[in-house]
Design a protein that fits this description.
Layout: H1 14-25, H2 28-40, H3 44-72, H4 76-86, H5 94-126, H6 135-146, H7 149-168, H8 171-198, H9 203-211, H10 220-233, H11 240-246, H12 254-282, H13 293-304, H14 308-342, H15 346-367, H16 382-409, H17 412-419, H18 423-449
Helix pairs in contact: 1-8, 1-11, 1-12, 1-14, 2-10, 2-12, 3-4, 3-9, 3-10, 3-11, 3-12, 3-16, 3-18, 4-5, 5-7, 5-14, 5-15, 5-16, 6-13, 7-8, 7-14, 7-15, 8-12, 8-14, 9-12, 10-18, 11-14, 12-13, 13-14, 14-15, 16-18
Bound molecules: tryptophan (TRP).
Tryptophan binds near residues 29, 107 and 233.
C-alpha cells in the first residue's frame, strides 16, 4: 500500500479551481470589512500597506498552503500527517490541520450570522423598505434587526442550510455547480454597480480617497490591521486553500493559480471600495463610520439615489452570493476530514458539521441582544471572543506554522516538483517563507496580544 492517502475527488479543471479559490477568498472580508477598515484608517495610505502585505505575505503563503494540500493529497489533518511522515518530522504537525478544521468551524458560525444580515437586507431592499427613508429610520432598522434574536436566528439558519446543502452534494455536483453560478453573477453585479457609480457625483472623490497616498494618516495600528486583513481576505491559515489544493491535479500550476486568486481578490476588494466610497461621498456620508458602513450607511444612499431599489437589492444580493462561496470553503476542510479519516459519508459529515456550527452560531446571534452584557475574555462578547480567537490567534498561528513547514521541513526537491520554479526563484521563495513571512506574522501576533 502506498503511504499516501489519495483523496478521491478532483476539480474538473484548473480554471474551476481558480474560480473556487476566488470564491473562497472573495467574501464579507472584501465587501464588508475591507471598505470599513479602509475608511477608518484613512484610505489610500492604508490601501498601499495592505497591497504590500498581500504581495509580501499573502501570496507566498497562498502558494505554500495550496502546495501543502496537493503534496499531502488529503484533508488538512491527514495531509499534514502524510507530509510529516515523508519528511521525517513530528506527528504533531497534524495539529496544524486540526487547528484549521476547528477555526474554520468557529469562523463559519459567526460568518453565517453576518451573512444572514445581508440576506435580511436583500429581502428588505427587494420589498422597497429603503425607498425614501430618512437616516434615523434606516439606522433604527439595523438596531432593530440586531436586537431581535428570532430574526437573526432565522437568517442564520437559512444561510447555514444553503451552504451545507451545497457542500453535501460533493465537489463536482455541489461546489463546482455553485461556483459556476455564483462567480459570474458576482462579477456581473459588480460591473453593473461600477457602471452606475462611474457616472455618479462621488466617483472622483472616491478614487482620490483610495489612490492618492497621504502618509500622514498612517499609524502603526493601521499597518497591523492591514496585515491581519491580508490573511483573512485570502482565506489563509486554516487549511481551506489546502483542502482545495488537495483536489487539484498534478498538471495545474500552483503559482499561476495563486497569482490569479490573489489578483482577483485584490481587484474585487478595490472595486467594492470604489463603488462603496462613491456612494458614500456622493451622498455626503461618513467614510469612517465603522462596521455599520455597509448596513447603516449604504441603505441611506440607496433610499435617495436614482434606481436605488434596483441597485440596493442587487448590491445586497451580491454580498449574499460572495458570502456563500466563502462559507462553503469553510465547511470543506472538516467534511473531507470526516470523509477520509472517519469513513463518514459526505452527506452526513456536512449536515453534522453544519449542525454543530449552527448551534455555535446561536451564541453570536445572542451576543447582539440577550447576551450583549455577557463577556468571555475581558470586555468581549461571545461574538467578539470568537472573532478575536480566530482572527488574532488561530489564523496567524496557522499561517506561521505553514510557512515554517514549507520553508524548513518540506524537502526542497518536493517543493521544486510542486512549483516547478527556476532554482533562483525557488531559493528566493524559500527565504521568504523561512524568514520574512514568519517574522512579520510574529510581529503582528505579539502586537495583537498586548
Ligand atoms: N476570505 C473570506 C472573506 O474575505 C473569508 C474566509 C473564507 C476565510 N474562508 C476562510 C477566512 C478561511 C479565513 C480562513 O470573506
Amino acid at each position: 500500500m502506498s503511504q499516501l492517502k489519495l483523496s478521491k475527488e478532483t476539480w474538473s479543471s484548473q480554471s474551476i479551481f481558480i474560480l473556487a479559490g476566488i470564491g473562497s477568498a472573495v467574501g464579507l472580508g472584501n465587501l464588508w470589512k475591507f471598505p470599513y477598515i479602509t475608511g477608518e484608517y484613512g484610505g489610500s495610505a492604508f490601501l498601499l500597506v495592505y497591497l504590500f502585505c498581500v504581495l509580501l505575505v499573502g501570496l507566498p503563503l497562498l502558494i505554500a498552503e495550496i502546495t501543502l494540500g496537493r503534496a499531502g493529497q488529503a484533508n488538512p489533518v491527514q495531509g499534514m500527517a502524510n507530509l510529516a511522515r515523508e519528511n521525517k518530522a513530528s506527528k504533531l504537525w497534524s495539529l496544524l490541520g486540526l487547528n484549521g478544521v476547528l477555526a474554520a468551524g468557529f469562523i463559519l458560525s459567526f460568518y453565517s450570522v453576518i451573512a444572514g444580515w445581508s440576506g435580511a437586507y436583500f429581502v428588505s431592499s427587494l420589498q422597497g423598505n429603503f425607498i425614501s427613508q430618512d437616516v434615523a429610520t434606516i439606522q433604527g432598522d439595523f438596531s432593530a434587526l440586531l436586537s431581535s434574536p428570532w430574526q437573526l436566528l432565522f437568517w442564520h439558519t437559512a444561510f447555514s442550510l444553503l451552504a451545507v446543502w451545497i457542500v453535501s452534494r460533493g465537489v463536482k455536483n455541489g461546489l463546482e455547480k455553485a461556483i459556476n453560478i455564483l462567480m459570474p453573477a458576482l462579477f456581473a453585479i459588480l460591473l453593473i454597480l461600477l457602471g452606475y457609480v462611474v457616472a455618479s457625483r462621488g466617483f472622483e472623490e472616491s478614487v482620490t480617497f483610495l489612490f492618492q497616498p497621504d502618509f500622514s494618516k498612517l499609524t502603526a495600528e493601521a499597518v497591523l490591521v492591514a496585515m491581519g486583513h491580508a490573511f483573512f481576505t485570502l482565506s489563509l491559515g486554516l487549511g481551506v486553500m489546502m483542502v482545495y489544493g488537495s483536489y487539484l491535479n498534478q498538471q495545474s500550476s500552483i503559482v499561476k493559480a495563486s497569482i490569479w486568486i490573489a489578483v482577483a481578490d485584490t481587484a474585487i476588494a478595490l472595486l467594492a471600495g470604489v463603488i462603496i466610497f462613491s456612494i458614500v461621498f456622493g451622498n455626503n456620508l461618513d467614510a469612517a463610520s465603522g462596521p455599520g458602513l455597509l448596513f447603516q450607511t449604504l441603505p441611506v444612499a440607496f433610499s435617495e439615489m436614482w434606481g436605488g431599489w434596483f441597485f440596493g437589492t442587487l448590491f445586497f444580493g451580491l454580498v449574499v452570493l460572495a458570502a456563500l462561496s466563502s462559507a462553503i470553503s469553510l465547511i470543506e476542510p472538516a467534511v473531507s476530514w470526516f470523509e477520509q479519516n472517519w469513513g463518514i459519508q459526505r452527506n452526513k459529515a456536512a449536515w453534522g458539521f453544519g449542525f454543530v456550527t449552527w448551534v455555535l452560531g446561536i451564541g453570536t446571534v445572542l451576543s447582539f441582544n440577550t447576551w450583549s452584557d455577557i463577556y468571555l475574555f475581558s470586555d468581549k462578547t461571545f461574538f467578539d471572543s470568537l472573532d478575536f480567537l480566530t482572527a488574532n490567534i488561530m489564523l496567524p498561528a496557522g499561517g506561521f506554522f505553514m510557512a515554517i513547514f514549507v520553508g524548513w521541513v518540506l524537502s526542497k526537491e518536493k517543493l521544486k516538483g510542486e512549483l516547478g520554479l527556476q532554482e533562483r526563484t525557488l531559493n528566493q521563495y524559500r527565504v521568504t517563507l523561512r524568514w520574512i513571512v514568519p517574522v512579520l506574522v510574529m510581529i503582528v501576533f505579539i502586537y495583537n496580544l498586548i
